[in-house]
Amino acid sequence: MASAITTAITDVLQWQVLLVILFSAMYGIFVGSIPGLTATMAVALMVPMTFFLGDVEAVAAIVTTVTCSIFAGDIPATLVRIPGTPASAAYATDAYALTLKSQHEKALTVCLVFSVIGGLFGTLVLACSAPQLAKIATQFTSYEYFWLFLLGLTCAAIVSDDSRMMGAFALLIGLLLSTVGLGTDYSTPRLTFGFDALITGINFIPAMIGLFGISEVLRNALYLPGMNETAASQVVGKEGSESKSRTVEASLLGRLRQVLSLAWQRKLHLLRSSSIGSLVGMLPGAGADIAAWISYAVSKRFSKKPDEYGKGSLEGIGDATGANNAALGSAWVPALVFGIPGDSVTAIAIGVLLTKNITPGPNIFDASEKPEQAALVFSIYVAFILANLVLIPLGLLAIRAGSILVHIPRRILLPLIVVFCTVGSFAMYGSYLDVSVMLAMGLLGFVLESFKVPLGPVVLGIILGGQVEHKFIQCITKSTDVSEFFSSPISIILGLSIAVLWCAPTLAKLMPRK
Amino acid sequence: MNSSSSHCKSFSYFFSLVLCLGLTGLPGCRNKADYPNRPITLVCPWAAGGGTDRVSRQMAAHLEQKLGVPVTVINATGGKGVTGHSRGLNARPDGYTLTMITLELNTMHWSGLTKLTFDDCIPLYSINEDYAALIVNNDAKWNSLQDLEMEIKNRPGQLKASGTASGGAWHLATAGWLIAGGRSADDVTWISSTGAGPSIQELISGGLDMVCCSLPEARTLLESGQVRALGLMAPRRALGFEEVQTFPEQGTDWTLGGWRCLAVPKDTPDEIVNDLTQVIGSIVEGETAISSGSDRSKMTFSKFMETQRFDHTYRTGNELREFLSETDAKFGELLTSDAMKSVNSDRFSPMTFPYIILGLMACVLLGIAINTLRQPYPFNRTSREPDNAQLESMTISVQRVGNRGLTNFGIIVTAMIAYMLFVEIVGFVLLSAAIVLAMLCWLGTRLKNSLLITIVFVGIVYEIFANVLRVPLPRGWFGW
Questions:
Q1: CB A138 within 8 A of CB B334
Q2: What distance separates the 2 farthest-apart alpha carbons in chain B?
Q3: From residue A160, how far is each of A94, A217, B325, B453 by CA, in Å?
Q4: In this complex, is the C-beta atom of B88 within 8 Å of any C-beta atom belonging to chain A?
Q5: In this structure, are residues A87 and A317 in contact, taking their beta carbons and an 8 Å threshold?
Q6: Does pLDDT of B5 surpass 50?
Q7: Are B177 and B252 in contact (CB under 8 A)?
Q8: Residue B101's pLDDT band (boundaries 50, 70, 90)?
Q9: Which residues in chain A have their CB less than 8 angstroms from residue B296's CB?
Q10: What's B116's DSSP letter?
Q11: How confident is the model at residue A245 (pLDDT cuts 50, 70, 90)?
């Protein structure tokens, strides 16, 4: 065991591997920050290159790319409210609100630091308890998954700022959109209204770009005749008195120190959100997106300042971003132990591992039997740690570079965003349907926001709708009785927490009056 | 006002410019002299990380080495394979779009999902045939296929199986096996799932009794001994899994396998078809090798398939066509038989879930309506003072919507629609440039600056997507 670890460390700390990590980090940040291109796509694009790399280099490249692209998704989410990857959708509204207050650099530094801490925590969990954790994953049958997905959806709905009703409404819109086309369980399409193209259903990447990004562009176009303004100058005009605090913020080291002390203050919260991230990430099919939502909801529920959530809460951003990065590490748990991927990225990673003659399985950590294999697994951990460390300087650079966007006048920025979003949503699957989905969702998002309906739950509804429906149909096909939905302790716990989350605010209101 | 009309002029000027370019550029520019001279797309109808994806990506790397142009794999997933197959086979028949067609091409037209059949493509080379296997938990009480068949006979409809979506290949394999044994197709309840991976996870967590999938898909847990295979629906034992007995060996006359095959759209020119067939032929014969494996040794395509435990039976030409029409007929027989009718009709209507959602939506809307009626004004009832935040938010939504704003709104929407309608004809570079330029000018940037921004921006975007990320962007006039 010890020898495997030392082999792993020496394997990774070679200049070729380090060079690969550096390049993958830049590549990951680059792809992650382009709206429409997900971490999954970043890794899929890399697969042909891994054929030409050694084992350790290939693993390091995948791990680094994912880590960095999930963080980089926060950059466009913060600056132009277009989540670069779905994992950033949970706090896009919060982060963008801070940009409008000209605190984008602070928001992004929080994203970066908390991502790194969450990522390191996730790695630690992966390294220390993968075999034990994997046992929990085997307890999950379709009933438990059904409840877990429902919990994720509940969290998204109840965190919305205005009312739970509006959140629920938004969520249901998302779920309804997700049922368009051919469901997993059916051989006849529904709700396509005669359009053959819709048989595939609504893809959530262009939907997300449309709902968040295009709707914001449209609103800007409609309400801002002063096209010369930039996001930054708008604030200066409105709140000139705050300019003093901004100059303090501008110093990089000062900002970093501020954020680090915030992280220290919130160390217990970080522990909580990283644990949530690790647990959720480990379950196949759940992953970083749901982790971010659940963590954000938990954070709001226990926060002393729940009113700030949705209007630029650094606490909410930090907790959610910590959770989504923590989920990345633990997504490798079921992948390594059972060969069952925890998310789409590890699905590709397994393919690459198999190409490298490494067979995932319960014995993968056994150094005595296959020392080379165990060493490679440990090098995954080392690569995760290095990836998170290299993310700090590169992330800061990316934030600097990205912040230029804030200083470009709207009249120039808007056309560029429109074309970029169009190409981005086209790029993923090369389909014009996706471009029309983006436009339609942009208009829908615009209308919904004018009626103060939150957009986050719509996105999560579209992402999870298919899976919720699938698990639900699986459950009712299997069961003879409703009680089977509550047949295991995990189901009961998950079911109860959903009930509590929906009813707690109402109960809390009733209590003091008695 | 003055400035806006000048923008209008420049706006229409650029559209007429684009139009002129279009009229002059329409004919010509079809250059087939040296195929291939630009990147090739390989459409994979299944998700990244799965078996088809892995085979596709490996094949793409070999093709790239042999052809000397980039070969990019696109995962066009969804619609049970319909999406990818129809995208690949309806593409321009110019040899720049290959498709990794799979067994589902033989089943989906029988179940009415699409009109596409294998007659719509020119199959080049089939590179893999993997047969269905029955997998059970290691601690299951059945030791042979006979034991399991006995159990099904005693408790019809009680056992649960999965492996793919209902109506998918492995579902048909299971149903065909039951029918061949004189049982009814729904004597085993099929639980629809998204694939072999999730099904096996469900199997080891105790939610299923058996999984039907190919052996490579279950390889990890088979090797660790958590699950075992009761039988393989194949005429011969599988390479790398020699210990698994076949169905015919165990006295059940039923075989069914999946296949993966490279194909091009129907009207592709003969010389390109011949070229590609030759190239693939040389790849499967081991003329190319790319480095992989822990020792970075060079590996041929067949060697890769072997180490991955994928079967590698190659067929081409007439043999391949016969094989495809044979399997097609077999599925036709199975899918149109009365025994399968009951299985194909879904147990729950596809609208079950949408109706539940609509019901809930009605409840929520009712709730919102009641809430709004109870608090009609943006005033806080207890303090009797206007709630500033709410008042502000109400006024924001009605402020400053002038004609100018509406026009901006309209232009952005029009630009995106124009992109969708014309990009295949005009090509990405020219159309995006026209759109960006027009919008920049309209929003009040000077023409000179607009031109500069447009050229730099479109150049960067093209470089990023087409060259770095290898996204096949639409090419139109002048091959741009």
A1: no
A2: 89
A3: 11, 22, 56, 39
A4: no
A5: no
A6: no
A7: yes
A8: very high
A9: 54
A10: -
A11: very low
d(C-alpha B260, C-alpha B267), whole Å: 21
Cis upstream peptide for B36 (omega within 30°): yes
Give B8's pLDDT tier (boundaries 50, 70, 90).
very low
Please tell me if residue B357 touches chain A, with a CB cutoff of 8 Å. yes
The CA distances from residue B354 to A171, A179, B171, B358, in Å, are 13, 6, 25, 6
Please state the ipTM of this predicted complex: 0.77
> Which token pair is B207?
């939610």
Cβ–Cβ of A356/B293 closer than 8 Å?
Answer: yes
Nearest CA among B226, B75, B245 for reference residue B148: B245
Contact present, B163 and B193 (Cβ < 8 Å): yes
Per CB-CB distance under 8 Å, the chain B contacts of A34 are 464
Q: How many helices (H) and strands (E) does chain A have?
A: 24, 0
SS3 B253: coil
Mean pLDDT within B334-344: 71
Q: What are the pLDDT digits (tens) for A366-407?
A: 666 667 777 888 888 899 999 999 999 999 999 888 888 877
Q: 3-class DSSP state for residue A180?
A: coil
Q: Is B58 on the interface with A (CB under 8 A)?
A: yes
Pseudo-torsion of CA A201, A202, A206, A210, nearest 10°? 160
Query: Does the beta carbon of B316 lie under 8 angstroms from any beta carbon of chain A?
Result: no
pLDDT at A214 over 50: yes
Beta bridge partners of B42: B73, B98
SS3 assignment, position A481: coil
Q: Counting Cβ atoms within 10 Å, is residue A268 exposed (0-12), middle (13-18) or buried (19+)?
A: exposed
Confidence (pLDDT) at B136: 94
H or E stretch covering B418: helix B403-426
List, as ranges, residues 161-200 from A with C-beta within 8 Å of B: 163, 165-166, 168-169, 172-173, 175-176, 179, 181-191, 199-200
User: Taking the complete model, does pTM exceed 0.80, yes or no?
Assistant: no
Hey, of A30, A33, A180, A188, which one would you mutate to test binding to chain B, going by the most B CBs within 10 A of its CB? A188
Tens digits of per-residue pLDDT, A436-452? 999 999 999 999 988 88
From the list B50, B204, B365, the residue facing A169 with the nearest CB is B365
Are B163 and B211 in contact by the 8 Å Cβ rule? The answer is yes
How far does CA A504 lie from the centroid of its chain?
Answer: 27
